[in-house]
Amino acid sequence: MNHPEITLILARAANGVIGADGRMPWHLPADLRRFKQLTMGRPMIMGRKTFDSLPAVLEGRRHIVLTRDTEWQDEGAEPVASVEEALKLANAPQVMVIGGAEIYRLFLPLADRIELTEVALEPKGDAVIAYPDPAAWRELAREDHPADDVGRPAYSFVTLTRQGG
Fold first, then answer.
1. d(CA 126, CA 25)
2. Which of 24, 19, 48 is nearest to 126 (CA)?
3. Residue 90: HSE in the Cβ half-sphere, 13 Å Cα cutoff
4. Percent of the chain scoring above 70 in pLDDT
5. Residue 116 and residue 93: Cα distance in Å, rounded?
6. How much is the pLDDT for 3?
7. What residues contact 7, with CB distance under 8 A and at least 6 apart?
8. Mean pLDDT across the stretch 62-77?
9. DSSP state, residue 23
């Protein structure tokens, strides 16, 4: 199957935590702006818990929700039962995979690019993902940002592409 360019969009703490009780354990407005810029006008693939964690349906983007529950429906969501079904339904040259941890693991072998926000924290959390294997991924760009005086941690925007891709 000829698949679209698949980009994982991921914010990850230094200890691998990506979520705690259905939320991100930090608040970085610049990361939210980057997320919006990267996803606007593109289909987003996510798990049901990630969809449920959104404050509302995000304007200008499709919400394709991978779920095991064949009866599940929600306003603005396009439910699917498999990775293949999600990609077919997206029917776009580029798709954005936005989480959570299980969905990232399913799409990682197919991903062409990772847009990663590295957050300089080690919070407690219940959703954890390993750092992408450096042998499989090449760092294309990095933009470092220091901690600020209102208590936000240092962070880096990192773009990774698959080696050989």
1. 10
2. 19
3. 28
4. 98
5. 21
6. 81
7. 38, 94, 95, 96, 97, 111, 112, 113, 114, 115
8. 96
9. B
* 3-31 per-position pLDDT tens digit: 899 999 999 999 999 999 988 999 999 99
One-letter amino acid of 123 = P
The whole-model pTM stands at 0.94
Q: Output the CA torsion 116→119→120→121 (10° steps).
A: -130
Alpha helices (H) in 43-82, listed in sequence order: 48-53
Question: To which residue do tokens 């339904």 refer?
Answer: 89
Q: CB pairs under 8 A, 24+ apart, for 86-93?
A: 86/45, 87/1, 87/3, 87/4, 87/6, 87/45, 89/43, 89/64, 90/4, 90/43, 90/45, 90/62, 90/64, 92/4, 92/42, 92/43, 93/4, 93/5
Q: How far apart are CA 72 and CA 51, in angstroms?
A: 12
